[in-house]
Specification:
Elements: H1 3-12, H2 26-42, E1 49-51, H3 57-64, E2 69-72, H4 74-79, E3 93-95, H5 102-111, E4 118-123, E5 126-131, H6 132-137, E6 140-145, H7 147-153, H8 186-189, H9 207-212, H10 215-225, H11 236-239, E7 244-248, E8 251-256, H12 258-277
Parallel strand pairs: 2-5
Antiparallel strand pairs: 1-3, 4-5, 6-8, 7-8
Helix pairs in contact: 3-5
Length: about 300
C-alpha cells in the first residue's frame, strides 16, 4: 500500500537542480543546445560568404553553420520528393562579413528553392530543414513574463472617481477603467428618462488590479500585430486555426510557430524600449481611498437648552 504515497511524493517533488559543475541532462541539456543554435543564427557572419551556383543546399548550410547539426525533416520532405543533397542552388550566394546575421544567409539559401517553399526549425538544437507548410503547422509553447509591461501600462487603465452625469447623458469616461462611451441621445434613454443613479464613492483598485486590467489589451495587441495565416501562423481566436494565448497572474503562455514567437519577442522587446525611452510624465500612483465619514450616533441625546 505504500506504492501510491511514494508515487505521489515523486510527482510533487520539485525538479532536481544540477549543482555547479554537474553536467546537464535531459530537458536542461536540450534547452542549452537550442539556445546555442539561436546564438549561432543571430551572430553576424564572421567571414564573407561566397557560395557558388549549383552548390547543394546541404553543403551550403554546412558552410554557414560549420559547428551546428543540420538535418532534414525527412517525412515532410519525402512527401514533396525533395532530397537536400541533390537540390542545387541556382544562383549561389554572396554576402559581406559582419553586415548580416547567419540567419539571414540561411533564409536566403532556402528561398532559392523554387518548387516547394522551405523553412527551418530549431528542434532542440538541431537545425531541421522542412517545408514551409510543415513549419506553419508545428507549434511550440513558450512562457513570457510580462509583469513589467503590465505595470508600465497600468496608468492607461487607472481609476478615476465616478462623476455625476447631467440629465440626459451617460456616465461618460469616468465610469470604468480606461473605458470611454459616448453620451446617449434622447431617443436612447427615452423622453424625460432619468440617468442611472450614482452609486456613491468607489474605492480605487489596488496596483495589482490596475496592472491585471492591462492583460487583455496586451493580448489583443500581440494577436493584432503578429502572426496571420500568411505571416508565419494564424491565431485560433482570430483565424479559426493556429496558436493561442493564455494568461495567469501576469505571465503569458503562448503556443505558436517559431516564426511567430520571434515576432512576439521583437514586439515585447520594442515595447520595453519604448516604455523606458518615454515614461509617463505624470504621477502614476493610485489615489488613496479616504475613509468614509463617521455617521452621527442616532442614539445620542440632543443637547438640551
Amino acid at each position: 500500500m505504500i506504492a501510491a504515497p511514494l508515487l505521489l511524493a515523486c510527482l510533487l517533488a520539485p525538479p532536481a537542480v544540477p549543482e555547479e559543475g554537474e553536467p546537464l541532462a535531459g530537458l536542461a541539456l536540450e534547452r542549452r543546445a537550442a539556445a546555442e543554435l539561436e546564438a549561432a543564427l543571430d551572430a553576424p557572419l564572421a567571414a564573407a560568404v561566397d557560395i557558388r551556383p549549383d552548390t547543394s543546399v546541404t553543403n551550403a548550410l554546412s558552410i554557414l553553420l560549420p559547428d551546428q547539426t543540420v538535418l532534414p525533416d525527412t517525412p515532410a520532405l519525402d512527401l514533396e520528393g525533395i532530397d537536400l543533397r541533390d537540390l542545387p542552388l541556382p544562383y549561389g550566394l554572396r554576402l559581406p562579413a559582419g553586415r548580416f546575421p547567419v540567419r539571414t544567409a540561411v533564409d536566403e539559401v532556402l528561398r532559392q528553392v523554387n518548387d516547394v517553399p522551405l523553412a527551418f526549425l530549431n528542434d532542440g538544437g538541431i537545425l531541421r530543414v522542412t517545408t514551409q507548410d510543415a513549419a506553419d503547422e508545428t507549434l511550440f509553447t513558450r512562457v513570457y513574463p510580462v509583469r513589467d509591461l503590465l505595470e508600465a501600462a497600468g496608468p492607461s487603465y487607472a481609476w478615476e472617481p465616478p462623476m455625476t452625469a447631467p440629465q440626459g447623458f451617460g456616465a461618460g469616461q469616468g465610469a470604468g477603467l480606461g473605458q470611454f462611451s459616448l453620451p446617449p441621445v434622447a431617443n436612447q434613454v427615452g423622453a424625460g428618462a432619468e440617468p442611472p443613479a450614482a452609486t456613491g464613492e468607489s474605492e480605487p483598485p489596488s496596483p495589482l488590479d490596475v496592472a491585471l486590467a492591462a492583460e487583455q489589451p496586451l493580448i489583443d495587441l500581440i494577436q493584432t500585430l503578429t502572426g496571420g495565416l500568411d505571416q508565419g501562423g494564424g491565431w485560433e481566436e482570430i483565424d479559426g486555426e493556429g496558436g493561442s494565448i493564455e494568461t495567469f497572474n501576469g505571465v503569458l503562455t503562448i503556443r505558436q510557430t517559431q516564426a511567430v514567437h520571434r515576432q512576439i519577442e521583437t514586439l515585447l522587446a520594442d515595447l520595453r524600449v519604448a516604455f523606458q525611452q518615454q515614461p509617463w510624465t505624470f504621477p502614476t500612483d493610485l489615489p488613496q481611498a479616504e475613509p468614509p465619514p463617521t455617521a452621527p450616533n442616532a442614539s445620542a441625546e440632543e443637547p438640551t437648552e
